[in-house]
Amino acid sequence: YGDVGHGSLLLLAGVWLVQNAESLRFSQPVLFSARYLVLSLGIFATFAGFMYNDFFSIGLQLFPSGYVDKEGNGQFTPTYDVTNSGGPGPYPFGLDWAWVGASNELLYVNSLKMKLSVLFGVAQMTVGLLLRWSNALYEKNMTDF
Question: What's the angle, vertex CA 14, arms to CA 59 and CA 130, rounded to 5?
Fold first, then answer.
């Protein structure tokens, strides 16, 4: 779920829930309990939306594209230095918005999202193991690790 528009709506809902937490404590206890979850979902969905360069499924043109479609047929050619020999670099952050109109957009973007999901999952599990190890070391109980 990476979209700047949807993530911003979740972020606004999370901010509202956090600001109005006391009025929800007894009337809506489920929303009161989930307020920080919704806030963090909004933050990370907005960040992922910038990485995927999506705003309600439309590519954001934040920076100039590194590709040009000269013939208008969906066959893009790079305008940046692909050999890394000192020319202009690739897109500064996230996915280039020119991929929205490419003929192989679905194949490339889905592959990218799957690889990023695996990388983030491995990173999250590694951080979890390091935290568990540090807690076991702090408590001087290596049996828990």
Answer: 85
